[in-house]
Amino acid sequence: MCTSCLCLCGYRVYYNGDNGVGPLGYTQTLFQGLATSAGHDPIAGPGSSCTASNASGQCVLPWGAGTRSVASIVLLANGVSFAIMTIIFTTIGSAGDYGTFGRWLLFVVTVVCWAAQYACMALTSPSRWKLVMVLYIISFVSYGATLVFYAAAFPRLARNTPHSRKLRDKYENGKISAEEYEKEESLEKNRISNISTMHSDVGYLATCALNLALLLPSATAHSPLVDNYVLVLDNTYWVLLGVWWFIYQLPRPGPPLPKGEHYFTIGWKQIWATVKTYKHLPYTFVYLAAYFLLADGLNTTGTLVTICQNAKFSFSFLTLTYLGLCQAVASTISVLGFWYIQRYWKISTKRMFGVTNVVTISISLWGMIGIWTNKFGFHNVWEFWAYNIVFGLFQAPYYAFSQTMMAELSPPGFDNMFFGLFGLSNRASSMVGPIVVQAIIDKTGNNWQGFPFLFALCSVASLIIWFAVDVEKGRRAAVNWASSQRK
Q1: What is the pLDDT of residues 199-223, one digit of tens each?
Q2: Long-range contacts of range 31-34, CB-CB < 8 Å, 24 or more positions apart?
Q3: Which domains are delineated in the chain?
Q4: Which of 397, 297, 343 is nearest to 186 (CA)?
Q5: What are the residue ranges in the chain where pLDDT is below 70?
Q6: pLDDT of residue 145
Q7: What is d(CA 362, CA 71) in angstroms, rounded to the nearest whole number?
Q8: Neighbours of 354 (CB within 10 A)
């Protein structure tokens, strides 16, 4: 098998293991579950149980001089996580464009995430809810960083596939027009992005299926550490599959670090220099700004729905696994289906992305209905089953198309710089939403009161992307700017 093929396989297999089941799903459930067991019902007073049959449904923990709701603490942990990501991406994100620093960035954050997930074996009692909060933040930050630095390798990888090289040769030899070259190159990027996302979904499905081997026996003979063992199993799956990318990844080093610069200072300088290029790359920056709002809204919506879902199913890893299986099957089918539809009708990335954004808005709208009625709006068991299926059908393609949009609007050769900003928009942006929503929940005592803010955020962002981002013009501007920087 050719070296480049092994590299592409390693890239896909890494994403198969880096599917988020442990760091995003189970770790948050374990955090919220232990915190709820350690808390008390504010209506009944200190010493009461949040899980008692006559509990009010509210749950608080000591926080500073007073108390704070468990949902508020989970959202606050997310806000802190995203703030840390902001520091990471702004400080060393763009440094990955130089030499081989980028590949080592991904390796380090991956190992940190692996270590934090294995450390979750120590989370065995409610009294350790503060420790689980720390490990949750470390896992969340390092996992988010793996997605960003992994995605940063995507544009360079896409430009060097055999098909991309053939297209470039045809264009340079005058055999195809610039318009045809751009369209076919865009489809190639979408192919790699969608297939890679499909591998992640398959990994999600495989991991959930493996978890049943531990969770089903414990349903009859309860094991107090089964949830911890599940996290270890999920993490081991990622380790076994993720290591191959670091073995077979082709060097493809960037230019050497400029004389007098340092890896930990050049990031801030380049961000300032990049921001000053707004006039040359207007569509790239409009997309980044709009995606900042959209990702903030979607990520916080997902966290809020998960908080409601965990409480509804009493933090059951088994039920969460069944929901995950539904989502994984739906995601795998949808990514392949969306890719087939796009390839067959040659639909632009922006149009495909727009379809997924409509559903993104609808999720927060549905949650908002739950403020005024208990009949709908994430109050019933069937709604969470429907949510996981709908989320799988539309949000897996959302991630694939959003990444491809960024790849098309990024100047070639400056991938880590712009994907660092993309990571800032995608991951670090979401320090705003959790902080605002947790404040709303803490004040009202109602989890559903956070949905109107998220609905407005997602709606505004989607409209900006649809009406103010011209991908074709943005792509050409990015290529021209990159060429001017190399002269």
Answers
A1: 888 999 999 999 999 999 887 666 7
A2: 31/74, 31/77, 31/129, 31/132, 31/133, 31/136, 32/70, 32/71, 32/74, 32/307, 32/310, 32/311, 32/315, 33/227, 33/310, 33/315, 34/123, 34/125, 34/126, 34/128, 34/129, 34/132
A3: 12-44+57-486 (1.20.1250.20)
A4: 343
A5: 1-5, 7-8, 93-97, 99-100, 154, 220-222, 250-254, 416, 420, 426-431, 486-487
A6: 87
A7: 22
A8: 14
